[in-house]
Amino acid sequence: MKHKHTVLLACACALAALVCAAPLHAEPEPPPPLQSPAMTTEDGAEEALPDVDLGRMQRAIQQLRHETWYWQRVMGVRLTRELSSSAAVEQRLAAWRRLSANTRRRAQNPPHKREWLCIHHYEGAWRDPNPPYYGGLQMDVQFQRTYGGAIFRRKGTADHWTPLEQMWTAERAHRSGRGFYPWPNTARYCGLI
Fold this sequence. Notes:
Helix 5 (141-147) packs across helix 6. The protein has helices spanning 2-21, 54-75, 89-107, 113-122, 141-147, 149-155, 163-178, 184-189, and strands at 38-40, 46-48. Among the domains are: 54-107, no CATH class; 113-189, Lysozyme (Orthogonal Bundle). Strands 1-2 form a two-stranded antiparallel sheet. It contains eight helices and two strands, in the order αββααααααα. By secondary structure, it is mainly α.
């Protein structure tokens, strides 16, 4: 009997929560459109320019900028702080879209991606949490701090990183002159050393 009352009480609470939350999910009234400036035509008549939601465009630029910066941080390259600020908002939005797409495409294809995937095949799972080596490329803590310091400070050990973050950290070690030697056995299995 107690079980039936508990279930009934839980259902009533869930129903009450849904009823109370329904007004919260209602679509807010959209803000009034910005007044469009008028454009003077050659014959002197004024013609209204099309409505542009500048706030929405600025938010889109901000989102694209942060996405671009994320991928640039993963790759370990200098961040693009600003594009031409003298351009119109629509042109800046288009430029950030292009830069974001190009940066994402480049980040998703590290220079030695095939080699890192081969090394990963012989190492641990991408989420391997077992010390002293972590992640899919079995990086120790000192290696992670040295070549992936920002990611390490933000996310902890490599078992919390995405596979791309792990590969780009290994790529930075490779670029520093270490090559594939931090993985002596698996690099040999893959024919890399």
